[in-house]
Amino acid sequence: MKQYNSIKRKHPDAILLFRVGDFYETFSEDAIKAAEILGITLTRRANGAASFVELAGFPHHALDTYLPKLVRAGQRVAICEQLEDPKMTKTIVKRGVTEMVTPGVSFNDNVLERKENNFLACVHLDKRAAGVAFLDISTGEFYLAEGSYEYIDKLITNFNPKEVLVERSKYRDFVDFFGTRYYVYKFDEWAYHEEGAREKLVNHFQTASLKGFGVDGMSLGIVAAGAALYYLDITQHSQAKHLATISRIEEEKYVWLDKFTIRNLELFYSVNEGAKTLVDIIDKTVSPMGSRLLKKWISLPLKDEKPIAERLNVVEYFINSIDKADLLRDGIREMGDLERVISKAAVGRISPREIVTLKNALEALVTIKQTCEQSDEPTLMRLGEQINLCTRIRERIEREIVEDPPAQLNKGNVIASGVNADLDELREIMHSGKEYLLNLQQRESERTGISSLKVSFNNVFGYYIEVRNTHKDKVPPEWIRKQTLVSAERYITEELKEYEAKILGAEEKVMAIEQQIFEQLVFSLTEYIASIQLNANLVAQLDCLLSFASSAAEYGYCKPKVNQGDAIDIREGRHPVIERMLPAGEEYVSNDVLLNGDAQQIIIITGPNMSGKSALLRQTALIVLMAQMGSYVPANAATIGLVDKIFTRVGASDNISLGESTFMVEMHEAASILNNISDRSLVLLDEIGRGTSTYDGISIAWAMTEYIHENPNGKAKTLFATHYHELNEMEGAFPRIKNYNVSIKELDNKVIFLRKLVPGGSAHSFGIHVARMAGMPPSVVKRATEILADLEKSPQDQRLNKPSAELGKSREGYQLSIFQLDDPVLKQIRDQLLSLDINNLTPVEALNKLNDIKRLAGVSDKK
């Protein structure tokens, strides 16, 4: 326990798995936590005089089962191993922490998600800007960036790290701006110094400076990256040769998608349980590397026309060359997770079975490389040329490792025959021991003429030859007598002793030789890390492009024209997710959308609830996003003038934990849009202002639309879906605003949604009709219809039709109140309440007055 406590003091914030013989044990508070999370038995054990300690443990071979549960529960786990063989020491076995597993730092396959990166993010906050580094130790990816808090927030949302490191003293600042949705570890201040961070990075990459990586001037990002490497040291992951380079995330290369847009478009996650997202629909990748890269492509669409065109051309080639696409797909399917396997090799954690997986992946590369190089598509040919087959190491693995090795090296039979003569001889001894002894017995029997000679073994003095007393006189002089029995004598020979030494030590020696050869092989792999990582990235790119081709062929997508123009012209566009979710036989109603800077910069869309306004907004953004990541799009034709930012304000929910109402959240998102729009931005606004009173909402929506139209920084292309039909008046006052509505058909007092976008405004919302469809009680629907008719006749409501110039001067909007109903009892109650002098009312008088009101309302006190 003294040894345990000294190690635990170094890792107070982690659960310490303390190896004792064949078990990992936890003690005290760790044991209480572990027992609760893992569902294992909590016991108590005497610990010295009159004290007890809580204890919970599990067998060492069950680590892969229990470790992921602890990490997923948000625990940091320190694995403390026995550092020496208990047989070799007479004192307490030396122990030490060999690995710290945290949510953001792990190699364990059961902790990692196959199709997701496991990023550790490190954030360095300055007064007005911040730096961030993203590191995935399981794949060897290392990125850094710096910029405004908003930009860093967008990147953290995009990369979705499993753990975020923040300077301890700036934790509160981080939470204030970035919220509490991440697993955050408060890291020590000493790691956040530029000089130390630069030195750490230069030493790690073994370069003279950071200029070669293009990050030399990014001091905030460098501090974050250096701190991330310090964290790897602290978690016992200092062996990280596979982090061979660091890439700068260039803000100017990618479309700006803020966290609201990523959430609103449901690219990766949906707030609705069981709902499909964009990545669910278009991810047809066949390798984990491809799936992880696809998520990056979705969150970082390109702004440069040339690489977009290259991706689109490759997708077109695959669609037209199905045989070659299938050949590549089959090859990629055989590769497994090459990226993570080579990372394990770099840190010496690769298993024999994974080495064979690596060899199979390198074999599959041969076909992939040939297929790419033999195509007539320039981008594909270039990808093929960059693939390095790593022939020498592949052949060495094939030569040295058996075809189907065990998962663990200590199970034996890993190294192939013919690699090491001593190993072959020892194996021969182990496997042919009985045969050797029979041969020896027969040979000695013939040589001496002792027919009853017998070779046997016991634990006292090993192998021996037993001779009956009747043949004692035939024993050769070189035999050494070892034991005399009543009717026989036992002897040993030099040959027998040599053989015994060999066979008894053979198993241990076989293990030692196999381990040595395997470690040499793994060490040889380290010089191929960079090449194999590049191969993995090239294969991931091919996998993503093949995925785009599969989606396009299966779903009937078209090749978009992406250019430098300012028009977004979508013909017969569809929502990629909704169209896949429709019941069998029901077709998605497609729509045209045209936005440009000359005549139709802003489209105001009105129409009933449930008519498809929100779907139209989202599908426009998704089509633009898909086009700029190099994918075909769900439309008959699409011309996309390159967009630099996509903003959406679609739906909102309360953020009660931060004390923000729905309307406050809505205004935060709207402010972010207005402060960041540019000439090439695409803005999608849905029901702005609905969280407040009617006139406030109309005023805000009008002012926002006007601001976007008149903004000197650029004519952001905008789709605005609204119930405020008063905004239709803007078309007459502003030249680039056009009215459209989603059409419906009224038939026998019923509404049929045609879901087709047509020019012109709409004057009705048909909300009561939707209430009827939702199953609202008929009496409520009937009463709502009566109230609506009454309100439409009300002179107060006529103020909504005032000319646009007077709109801003109107006072607070008319809101429905229970006291505006034509009910004499309610009027009487209202008059009583208005006449009350609350400040001078005694409690008894208040109760009496409440009783009077109850009587007026017809409420009886009788049970």
Structural commentary:
- The model is unreliable at 653-659 and 796-816 (pLDDT under 50).
- Strand 16 (480-484) and strand 17 form a beta hairpin.
- The strands form five sheets. The protein has a seven-stranded mixed beta sheet, sandwiched between helices.
- The chain has six domains: 2-101, DNA repair protein MutS, domain I (MutS, DNA mismatch repair protein, domain I), CATH 3.40.1170; 120-249, Nucleotidyltransferase, domain 5 (2-Layer Sandwich), CATH 3.30.420; 278-406 and 531-555, Orthogonal Bundle (MutS, DNA mismatch repair protein, Chain A, domain 3), CATH 1.10.1420.10; 421-518, MutS, DNA mismatch repair protein, Chain A, domain 3; 561-765, Rossmann fold (3-Layer(aba) Sandwich), CATH 3.40.50; 820-856, no CATH class.
- 37% of the residues are buried.
- It contains 30 helices and 27 strands.
- It is α/β, with parallel strands linked by helices and 863 residues long.
